[in-house]
Amino acid sequence: MKSQFLPSQIVSWIFGTAVFAIGILNLFLVHAVPGTVFLMLSLLYAPQTNVFLLNRFGFTVPPVAKVMLGIAVIWFTLGVSDLGDMID
What we know:
Blueprint: H1 7-30, H2 32-42, H3 47-57, H4 63-79, H5 82-87
């Protein structure tokens, strides 16, 4: 069986990579706590996470919720966090 890339998976990987990069930058440039939180949030975007959540808990995170979370994280980082001030 061939695996196919769905548009939702591509968007999920893009947001996951962005949140992961924000987590790494926060970890080294700002503080360890928000960096660790963002790194853990970036795990939500991996396709294997949906399979794990479905098998273990019986639910998955909808793609719309993932996109909204990604936008909120990016908005928070660029708007009110110390990392946003460093970029300016």
